[in-house]
Structure to design on (592 residues):
RNA sequence: CGGGGUGUAGCGCAGCUUGGUUAGCGCGCCUGCUUUGGGAGCAGGAGGCCGGGAGUUCGAAUCUCCCCACCCCGACCA
C-alpha cells in the first residue's frame, strides 16, 4: 500500500518554468519524474511504478507473440558498428567514448549489430529459424536538442526486436506477427495511434510502417485521408498520377521575351495579362509553371552527382522527402561554383531544354509525378529573360524519370480513393520494418540451409519507445486538473482521500477500506495525511491521476447509513456508495 | 549548428534600465496554537557562491567579455 504520509513525493502547485508540453509539465508537477541531466530524467516512486507498468505490458505482449527476451549491454565496442559502417554513418548523434587504454566505445542508439552477432554465435542451422528476439534497454542518442521532457531525451528506454528468417515469405510473416503484437500492445496501453507507411531510410530495407500517436506536440508530420484509411509519413506519401493528355489539343510551344518576371507570381501575372497568351478557358496559375531546381547528390562513396528536379511552380521541394528518395545519397545545395561548371544552366531560367541525360547539361532530370505526357507548362527557356509557354511533356521534352520530392499540402489527393488528405502531427511510438540482409551480410551471419549450403538470413527490426509511450499516454490522457492514467498503467487502482477530523470516523474507515481493497487484490494509494486540508488532498488526487478516487469524508460520519464517495477521475462523475458495499463496488469498477 | 528568450531559496517570480544598507515577495518547508469537503488562519523560524569564470570599479545580482545550462523557432532526427 502506498501512503501519502510517507511517500517519497513532492507535488508542485505551479508549473515548472522549463516544461512546455503537458506530459513534461504534469509528470514533474505530480512528482513522477525530475530532470537530472540534459535530456535525462530521474524517476520517483510513482513514476517508476507507471514506467514498470508500461514495460510490463510491452513485455507481456512480446512474450505472448512468442518472442524471447534477451539483454545486451548499452556500452558497446566500436568494432561491430565499424563493420556495418554505422560508427561513421550515425554521425554526431552517436555517443562515443574511450576506455582508459584509448579504445573506442559507444553508448548504443540501437542494437542491430549485437543481435546479429549473437544469432551468428548461437545459430548455425536453418532449423534455428525463424527467430524473433527482443530486449528492453536504455538507449542513447546525443540529440542536438533534447526537448519536451520524456518525448525526446538523450537517454530513453526502447524495446527493440529483431526477426531472422530464411526468405522473404518468412520475413513477411515475422513482420506481420510484430505488427499484430504492436496493435494489441498499443490498444492495451490505451494509446490512440495510426499506422502510417514510412520510408525505411538510412536503415536500408523495404517495407516499413510507423505507429504514430496523433497529437499536436508530435514531431512527425503525416498525412491521412479524410475518407478512407490511407495514412502515410510525409516522406512516403505517393502522388497520384493523373491520366496522360492527348497532344492533339495542345498548342505549339513558343519562346517569349519575359523581362521583369523574376518570380513565379510575376511570371503568371505577365502571361495572364497578355491577351494572346491567355488560355481561352481559364487563367494560367502557378501550378502551370514548371520550376526546375538543381541540387547535388553526395553519394556514400564520395562522388558528387548533379540532379535536376522539375515540379509545379506552386510547390517547393520538400527536403525531407527528397532525402528519403535519394538515400543513402545526401542532397546538397547547388552553389555558384557549380553553376560555373555548367554553363548551359541559366540561373532563374533553367528549362527542360537543357536538362536530362540527352541534353546540353547532361544532368539527370527527374520530374514530379504530376508532369505526365501531354501536360503543357510555362517554364524557363534556358536564356536570360526568356520563358517558353506551352511546352508539352512527352512531346517537347522527355525527363529521365519521376521523383516524389514536392511538398505535400492539406487537401492534396489521396492516392487510394482520390479524396482530400489532411496533414497532422504525431509522436512516433513504434516503428516496424523489414531490414533485409544488410546487417547479416556486413557481419557475415549465415546458417546452413537444408542442402548444407550457407544461407544469409533476412532480418526485420521493430521498436517501441517505452518511455516515450509513457509520455504519449500522459499527453493523450490529461485535463486541466492533472494526469488521467489508463488503469492498466496507473500507479494504483484507487486513490483513497481521507477528509475528516483526527478523532472522527474517517481515518479508521480509510485505513479499513485500504486494507480491504488490498485484500481484494486492488492497488491502493491512501492519503492518510492530516496536515493538509481536504482541498489540498483533492487537488493532489486529481493531479496524480489515479483512475478511481474514493473519498472517505462526511459520508462515513452518518451513523445510520454511512457512505463513501466514489469518483471517476476521467469523467468527474461521483456516486455515494454504502460503506458495506463499497469494496465490492470498487472491485467491480476496477476489474471492468 | 543558426535565430530569439531566460538563468536570483525546493517551486513560481520581483529587483538589473540609472552599481551603493542586512537581496525581496508568494507558495512550499520547520516550531507552536487554531482549523479539516476544494490548494486554511495567526505567531515565530530555517533556507541564497543572485548559473560559472574573468574583468571594470572604492564598491557588482545590477556594467563588459567569455563559458555553461534551460526554453522556443529552424536545421537535425529508426
Amino acid at each position: 500500500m502506498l501512503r501519502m504520509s510517507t511517500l517519497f513525493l513532492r507535488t508542485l502547485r505551479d508549473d515548472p518554468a522549463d516544461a512546455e508540453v503537458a506530459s513534461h509539465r504534469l509528470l514533474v508537477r505530480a512528482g513522477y519524474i525530475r530532470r537530472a541531466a540534459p535530456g535525462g530524467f530521474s524517476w520517483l516512486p510513482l513514476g517508476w511504478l507507471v514506467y514498470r507498468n508500461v514495460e510490463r505490458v510491452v513485455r507481456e505482449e512480446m512474450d505472448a507473440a512468442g518472442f524471447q527476451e534477451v539483454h545486451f549491454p548499452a556500452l558497446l565496442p566500436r568494432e561491430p558498428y565499424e563493420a556495418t559502417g554505422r560508427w561513421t554513418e550515425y554521425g554526431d548523434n552517436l555517443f562515443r567514448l574511450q576506455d582508459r587504454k584509448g579504445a573506442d566505445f559507444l553508448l548504443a542508439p540501437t542494437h542491430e549489430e549485437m543481435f546479429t552477432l549473437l544469432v551468428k554465435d548461437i545459430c548455425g542451422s536453418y532449423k534455428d529459424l525463424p527467430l524473433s528476439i527482443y530486449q528492453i534497454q536504455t538507449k542513447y542518442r546525443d540529440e542536438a536538442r533534447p526537448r519536451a521532457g520524456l518525448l525526446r531525451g538523450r537517454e530513453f528506454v526502447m524495446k527493440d526486436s529483431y526477426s531472422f528468417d530464411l526468405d522473404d515469405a518468412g520475413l513477411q510473416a515475422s513482420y506481420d506477427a510484430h505488427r499484430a503484437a504492436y496493435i494489441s500492445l498499443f490498444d492495451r496501453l490505451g494509446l490512440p495511434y495510426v499506422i502510417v507507411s514510412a520510408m525505411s531510410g538510412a536503415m536500408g530495407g523495404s517495407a516499413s510502417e510507423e505507429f504514430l500517436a496523433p497529437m499536436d506536440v508530435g514531431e512527425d508530420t503525416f498525412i491521412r485521408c479524410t475518407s478512407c484509411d490511407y495514412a502515410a509519413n510525409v516522406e512516403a506519401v505517393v502522388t497520384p498520377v493523373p491520366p496522360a493528355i492527348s497532344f492533339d489539343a495542345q498548342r505549339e510551344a513558343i519562346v517569349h521575351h519575359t523581362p521583369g518576371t523574376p518570380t513565379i507570381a510575376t511570371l503568371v501575372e505577365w502571361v495572364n495579362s497578355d491577351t494572346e497568351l491567355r488560355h481561352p478557358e481559364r487563367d494560367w496559375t502557378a501550378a502551370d509553371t514548371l520550376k526546375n531546381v538543381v541540387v547535388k547528390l553526395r553519394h556514400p562513396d564520395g562522388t558528387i552527382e548533379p540532379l535536376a528536379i522539375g515540379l509545379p511552380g506552386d510547390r517547393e521541394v520538400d527536403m525531407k522527402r527528397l532525402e528519403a528518395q535519394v538515400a543513402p545519397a545526401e542532397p546538397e545545395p547547388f552553389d555558384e561554383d557549380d553553376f560555373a561548371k555548367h554553363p548551359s544552366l541559366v540561373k532563374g531560367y533553367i528549362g527542360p531544354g537543357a536538362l536530362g541525360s540527352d541534353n546540353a547539361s547532361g544532368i539527370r532530370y527527374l520530374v514530379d509525378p504530376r508532369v505526365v505526357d501531354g501536360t503543357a507548362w510555362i517554364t524557363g527557356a534556358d536564356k536570360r529573360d526568356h520563358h517558353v509557354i506551352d511546352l508539352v511533356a512527352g512531346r517537347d521534352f522527355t525527363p529521365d524519370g519521376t521523383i516524389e520530392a514536392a511538398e505535400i499540402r492539406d487537401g492534396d489527393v489521396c492516392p487510394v480513393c482520390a479524396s482530400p488528405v489532411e496533414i497532422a502531427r504525431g509522436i512516433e511510438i513504434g516503428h516496424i520494418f523489414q531490414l533485409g540482409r544488410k546487417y547479416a551480410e556486413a557481419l557475415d551471419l549465415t546458417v546452413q540451409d537444408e542442402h548444407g549450403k550457407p544461407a544469409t538470413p533476412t532480418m526485420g527490426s521493430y521498436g517501441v519507445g517505452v518511455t516515450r509511450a509513457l509520455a504519449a499516454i500522459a499527453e493523450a490522457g490529461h485535463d486541466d486538473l492533472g494526469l488521467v492514467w489508463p488503469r492498466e498503467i496507473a500507479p494504483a487502482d484507487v486513490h483513497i482521500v481521507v477528509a475528516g477530523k483526527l478523532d472522527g470516523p474517517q481515518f479508521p474507515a480509510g485505513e479499513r477500506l485500504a486494507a480491504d481493497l488490498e485484500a481484494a487484490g486492488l492497488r491502493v494509494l491512501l492519503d492518510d495525511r492530516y496536515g493538509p486540508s481536504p482541498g489540498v488532498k483533492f487537488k493532489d488526487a486529481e493531479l496524480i491521476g489515479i483512475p478511481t478516487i474514493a473519498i472517505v469524508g462526511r459520508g462515513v460520519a452518518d451513523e445510520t447509513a454511512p457512505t463513501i464517495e466514489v469518483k471517476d477521475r476521467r469523467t468527474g462523475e461521483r456516486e455515494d456508495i454504502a460503506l458495506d458495499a463499497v469494496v465490492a463496488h470498487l472491485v467491480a469498477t476496477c476489474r471492468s
In short: The radius of gyration of chain A is 31 Å. Residues 168-188 of chain A form the longest helix (21 residues). Chain A has three domains: 48-74+109-235+423-470, 254-402, 492-591. Chain A has a mean pLDDT of 87.
